[in-house]
Amino acid sequence: MLKIALIGYGQMGKLIEQLTVQNDCEIVAKIDPLLGNEITAETLANADVCIEFSTPDAAYGNLTKLIKLGKNVVTGTTGWFNELDKIKLLVEEAGTGFVYGSNYSIGMNLFFSIVETTAKLMNQAEDYDLYGLEMHHNKKKDSPSGTAKVLSEIILKNIDRKTKAQYEKLDRRIDKSEFHFGSIRSGDIPGMHSISFDSEADTIELKHTARNRNGLALGAIRAAKWINKKTGFYNFTDNLTEIIG
Q1: CATH code, 163
Q2: Taking the model in full, what pTM does it have?
Q3: How many separate domains does the chain show?
Q4: Interhelix angle for 214-227 vs 106-122, to 10°?
Q5: Is 188:137 a contact under the CB 8 Å cutoff?
Q6: CB 10 within 8 A of CB 56
Q7: How do residues 12-29 score in pLDDT, each as one tens digit?
């Protein structure tokens, strides 16, 4: 049975805890400032793998501590990826295993592939303009979502006429080379992402809507099982086929 330490005990941490028993895992530590404990060798002594879902401000510090303690880590926190190269170097120096990703939902990662395939087809259809939209609950602390950024990267890589993602409000006419991706934060929306291709004649829309956060939690648990006793630095999306078996 895999022994997991939860770093961050918010909505995702609590959901992962609920799902561990039926997935042959055991929670041996819960680390969160609200619980009054910290990341130390003692608090993590029994953990095989740490799953980190905290906040953008806390993630880099948490991950640094975990890696230096020699722990294999799965992190689902977004909003800190500007520090990714530093974390990769720490993982290589420590000889640990590390998985990161903007979205651990199996369905969303299949959606990434669908968007990529469609974008390659639509690259030749120059009559179509493109835009993206994402919606999340009002407690989400980053905007745009990490998933929105991944989707934008897919579009920019495969649509030659789009060279820059634009996430902000515009007080001007948008340039034809810009890909506009809007964000909405309200209520309890688990998550919705869409990519639309619009022409004078019609609109083609690709859309992924999460009913709940279970897919994210289950994906993180599967990643934890996969990275246990492995070494190396991995992206969940890039290694999806291996992780889900």
Answers
A1: 3.30.360.10
A2: 0.81
A3: 2
A4: 100
A5: yes
A6: no
A7: 999 999 999 899 999 999
